[in-house]
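Quick one:
INPUT:
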């Protein structure tokens, strides 16, 4: 029982880390033999909590980033890519595509920096992350069944 709690805690914490994301953690946890539905819910909650944290404290984060001014080229490239998506598809497009390209945390930061409202960013990223997490869980579960690796339980 204690080992199971530890595994769920690890899924929660890993999915909360920027750039690791729930979409990446879910297939690994399912591959490790954890139930798909529970893993998906816990990973989604971990990812969403940190995204909501960014949304709530965006003003402080912008001040901190402005003071830091040590931007890397890879961050600039990601920002440019996110800005192109923003200009072409707006908030819905960036919220749906962003978690796969730059990660959900950076997507939240960029969406708010490009002019998205806190309410809109919260809505669209929640919708997007639920969709991507469910899709990742289904694909991981079906993929393991397809390769007939071992019996998997959905619940």
């Amino acid at each position: 029982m204690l080992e199971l709690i530890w595994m769920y805690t690890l899924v929660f914490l890993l999915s909360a880390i920027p750039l690791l994301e729930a979409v990446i953690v879910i297939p690994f946890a399912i591959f490790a033999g954890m139930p798909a539905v529970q893993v998906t819910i816990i990973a989604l909650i971990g990812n969403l909590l940190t995204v909501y944290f960014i949304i709530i404290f965006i003003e402080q984060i912008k001040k901190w980033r402005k003071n830091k001014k040590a931007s890397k080229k890879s961050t600039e490239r990601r920002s440019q890519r996110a800005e192109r998506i923003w200009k072409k598809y707006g908030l819905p497009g960036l919220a749906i595509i962003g978690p796969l390209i730059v990660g959900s945390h950076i997507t939240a930061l960029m969406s708010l920096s490009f002019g998205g409202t806190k309410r809109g960013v919260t809505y669209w990223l929640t919708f997007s992350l639920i969709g991507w997490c469910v899709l990742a869980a289904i694909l991981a579960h079906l993929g393991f069944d397809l390769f007939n690796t071992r019996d998997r339980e959905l619940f």
